Amino acid sequence: MPLQSEGAVLPRLWLGTWSMGGEGFGFCDARDAQALLEYAFKAGVRHFDTAGFYAHGKSEKLLIKLSKYHRGSIFISSKGGLEWEGRNVFHRASPEALRQSLQQSLKRLRTDYLDLYQLHWPDPKVPIGESLDALREFQQEGLIRHWGVCNLMAKQVELHIPEFAGIAHQVHHNPIHRSDDILQAGEQQARCYHLVYSPLEQGLLGDGKSSSGLKVLGKKDFRRSNPYFNSSRIRLWLDELHQLAEEKTVPVAALVLAWAFNFRGVSGVIVGPKTPCQFQTLLRYQSFFQAEQAMLIKLCGQALWQHLHNPVNI
Ligand SMILES: NC(=O)c1ccc[n+]([C@@H]2O[C@H](COP(=O)([O-])OP(=O)(O)OC[C@H]3O[C@@H](n4cnc5c(N)ncnc54)[C@H](OP(=O)(O)O)[C@@H]3O)[C@@H](O)[C@H]2O)c1
């Protein structure tokens, strides 16, 4: 498998550093973030996902320490193509802009290569093929080991990703935000190696978050504009999920991850905890992440498994 890192005990579980950067997902203590990364490494996680865009570079910088001591054994994936200008976000995925952003990432991470570099989002002003050619060039120059994409639509996958290429594609997918068509397109002719992101829908599907347990989000928390957080239908579905999970004494977050790992066409899952404790909860149930569907149904019961598969509309 091209995207595996040697020594990974949990090769399909990737750790994302976006929320650890402390911007947009509420406060995150930098010491907690560092402790979490070290804890994850000790537990056998080797794949770390970040982006220059996350928390204005702070999320990338969190990986400096791990990289300093373990560069040869960790897999660092970052992205380019989205940039901040003041409070606004812009697409910048021309070959020149991608090169500049890659150079900044290498500098921030204090490394001379990345294991994976991805187009963060297609730029409406730049043909996708041009952005991807730039990534191929970086690979030929030895600046990156693999190139990849994020957030392509099914049609774009079919048009731009070669057959049997196994290109990393980050896809937003979880029980309430489904991307079945995109996964299907990438699975055909083995075009993509799918990495599911926001498996917990930015924390909405975390533990203790039945509608009564949902925390009040701060003014600068961008999850305030996430429509799933404000939907009464989702809240009803969530309450039922928590009730069923409580009967089986399984944490909701672990269940949702098991659902994602088990989904057809999913190669890896990028989760984004903010504290060691949140990550420990998930790791306690790591046997779920490798289990076959029949075993999962046995463990959590038909009703709960079915509920996770019942799509809810906002
Ligand atoms: N390619 C892309 O366009 C793209 C887009 C988004 C993300 N990503 C990648 O995917 C990673 C994960 O995305 P995400 O941060 O949205 O993931 P997520 O795992 O869906 O949500 C993370 C949030 O969930 C809550 N949480 C985590 N573990 C929990 C647990 N055990 N119990 C309860 N709550 C828990 C935390 O928030 P609270 O504690 O505040 O509730 C945390 O900030 C990112 O770091 C990034 O690397 C990529």
Would you give an account of this structure?
- The chain is of the alpha/beta class and 314 residues long.
- It has helices at 30-43, 58-61, 64-70, 95-109, 128-140, 154-160, 180-187, 232-248, 252-262, 276-283, 286-290, 293-300, 302-309, and strands spanning 13-16, 47-49, 75-80, 82-85, 88-91, 114-119, 144-150, 167-172, 192-197, 266-271.
- The strands form two sheets. An eight-stranded parallel β-barrel has the order 1-2-3-6-7-8-9-10, surrounded by four helices.
- A hairpin with a 2-residue loop joins strand 4 and strand 5 (88-91).
- Helix 4 crosses helix 5 (128-140), helix 6 runs parallel beside helix 7 (180-187) and helix 8 (232-248) runs antiparallel to helix 13.
- The radius of gyration is 19 Å and the shape is globular.
- Bound molecules: NADP nicotinamide-adenine-dinucleotide phosphate.
Helix and strand element order: EHEHHEEEHEHEHEHEHHEHHHH
Distance linking N and C termini = 37 Å
Mean pLDDT: 94
Query: What small molecules are bound in this structure?
Result: NADP nicotinamide-adenine-dinucleotide phosphate
Strand adjacency order, main sheet = 1-2-3-6-7-8-9-10
Structural class label: alpha/beta
- What is the CA-based Rg, rounded? 19 Å
Q: How many DSSP helices? A: 13
Strand content: 15-25%
Fraction of residues in H or I helices: 25-40%
Shape: globular
- The overall strand count is 10
Map the helices and strands.
Layout: E1 13-16, H1 30-43, E2 47-49, H2 58-61, H3 64-70, E3 75-80, E4 82-85, E5 88-91, H4 95-109, E6 114-119, H5 128-140, E7 144-150, H6 154-160, E8 167-172, H7 180-187, E9 192-197, H8 232-248, H9 252-262, E10 266-271, H10 276-283, H11 286-290, H12 293-300, H13 302-309
Parallel strand pairs: 1-2, 1-10, 2-3, 3-6, 6-7, 7-8, 8-9, 9-10
Antiparallel strand pairs: 4-5
The chain binds NADP nicotinamide-adenine-dinucleotide phosphate (NAP).
